[in-house]
Amino acid sequence: MKQENWYDTFIEMLNKRYPKKTQLIHFLMDLLELEREAVYRRLRKDVMFSIHEIVTIATAWSISLDEITEINSGNISFQMKMMNYLDPSKEEVNFLRNVIQSIEYLKNFPETEFMDICNKLPRKLFAGFEHLNHFYMFKWLYQYGSESEAQPMSKIVISKERKKVTKDYYNAIKLVPQSNLIFDCNMFEYLVQDIQYFHSIYMITNEEKELIKKDLLALLAYLLEVANKGYYPETRNKVSLYISQLKIDTSYSYTYTPEVNVCYVHVFEKFEIHSYNTEMVSNFMSWMQLKKRTSIQISEVDEKYRIEYFTKQRQLIESL
Predict the structure, then answer these.
(1) CA gap 93, 30 in Å, rounded
(2) Would you say 273 and 264 are in contact if contact means Cβ atoms under 8 Å apart?
(3) CA angle 262–273–119, rounded 5-degree value
(4) Same domain for 139 and 235
(5) Calpha distance 147→145 (Å, rounded)
(6) Which end is more exposed in the chain, N or C (fewer Cβ atoms within 10 Å of the end residue's Cβ)?
(7) What SS3 class is residue 297?
(8) For residue 158, which of 179, 144, 137 has the smallest C-alpha distance?
(9) Looking at 163-305, which runs of residues are DSSP E strands?
(10) Domain for residue 133, yes or no?
(11) How far apart are CA 115 and CA 178, in angstroms?
(12) pLDDT band at 1; cut points 50, 70, 90
């Protein structure tokens, strides 16, 4: 491929990530530590981004240079963005806000679809419930943090800024035109067992357990409303909810849009490895859609199973 062609593709990808030119300019100024005019010259192609600058941008945005240059290495690369979710840096907060802005932008494309296959409660759901979100942060630090971070839940303090970003993410998710969620049939059972375990070793107090339980019941009531209506009540955007009849070993998801598609494997509670590779995303979409064959749809249809499922989950949570 000629240099001008792959470079045009690279510039095009930058503009797709930030359709508003001012946002793109500010991001590149911060990331590359360049003056405004220097960024403008690069985007106008008066001056080319240096190799170091291209790699820096590609790393920050998980852009595959193989795909841009059409170099077939024979490998499909997955990447992981490391984040400090408890005390994020300024750069990490900006990255999270950019993610939220990207999701909000997707509301303009009716074809956009999110699909999640979950063996644990997905972040897009528990993010709207303060004590439940607090529990997941505590659990993550206890499992994957340093020894000094393995503290009781009461010692884990989440900043106001982090809470604001989490709330904004929860609201933005509902703007996506189409969502498919497939739950492991024992997902809530696994969560209740986790809560009981941490309560038994005195890492969660009785009061905290009751607050988490209250959030879980509120989430369950919200999910029942979504399942009954087949859409998010706040935005009326379509949601199809399924219960897998087979065990789900790992959580997967994909985002399909007319412009950029990406697939994820969710790991270590708070992270995911992802790929923009066209072939891999296509395979993910096919594999995940096939999962519906061993799942029961409970949104809008099969009222009997829907009532039975939510009754069982409510009883399970009440047992806490």
Answers:
(1) 13
(2) yes
(3) 95
(4) yes
(5) 7
(6) N
(7) strand
(8) 137
(9) 178-184, 238-244, 251-256, 262-267, 271-275, 295-297
(10) yes
(11) 8
(12) very low
Residues 149 and 255 reside in one and the same domain: yes
Q: Which residues contact 111 (CB under 8 A, 6 or more apart)?
A: 177, 178, 256, 257, 258
Report the first-to-last Cα separation within the chain, whole angstroms: 61
Q: What is the tally of structural domains in the chain?
A: 2
Which residues, in sequence order, are CB contacts of 120 under 8 Å at separation 6+?
184, 187, 190, 191, 251, 269
Q: In this structure, which amino acid lies at residue 133?
A: N
Residue 3 banded pLDDT, cuts 50, 70, 90: very low
Rounded-to-integer distance, Cα 170 and Cα 211, Å = 19
Give the span between the Cα atoms of 81 and 283, in whole angstroms: 22
In a domain, 157, yes or no: yes
Q: Is 1:68 a contact under the CB 8 Å cutoff?
A: no
b/e string for 273-283 if b means 16 or more Cβ within 10 A? bbbbbeebbee
Give the separation between CA 119 and CA 186, rounded to whole angstroms. Answer: 8
Length of the chain: 320
Contact assessment for residue 159 and residue 248, using Cβ atoms and an 8 Å cutoff: no
CA contacts within 13 A on the Cβ side of 10: 28
DSSP state of 50: P
Residue (of 162, 13, 174, 6) closest to 96 by Cα position:
162
| Residue range 164-175, pLDDT digits in tens | 888 999 999 999
For residues 287 and 257, which has the higher predicted lDDT (pLDDT)? 287
Least confident of 17-26, 97-106, 193-202: 17-26
Name, in order, each residue with C-beta under 8 angstroms of 100's C-beta and a sequence gap of 6 or more.
165, 168, 169, 172
Question: Do 226 and 299 meet the contact criterion of CB atoms below 8 Å apart?
Answer: yes
Please provide residue 14's backbone torsions phi and psi, each rounded to the nearest 5 degrees: -60, -45
Provide the residue range defining the domain that includes 41.
3-69
65 DSSP 8-state letter = H
Question: Is the Cβ–Cβ distance between 152 and 203 less than 8 Å?
Answer: yes
Q: Has residue 17 been placed in a domain? A: yes
Q: Which amino acid would we find at residue 138?
A: F
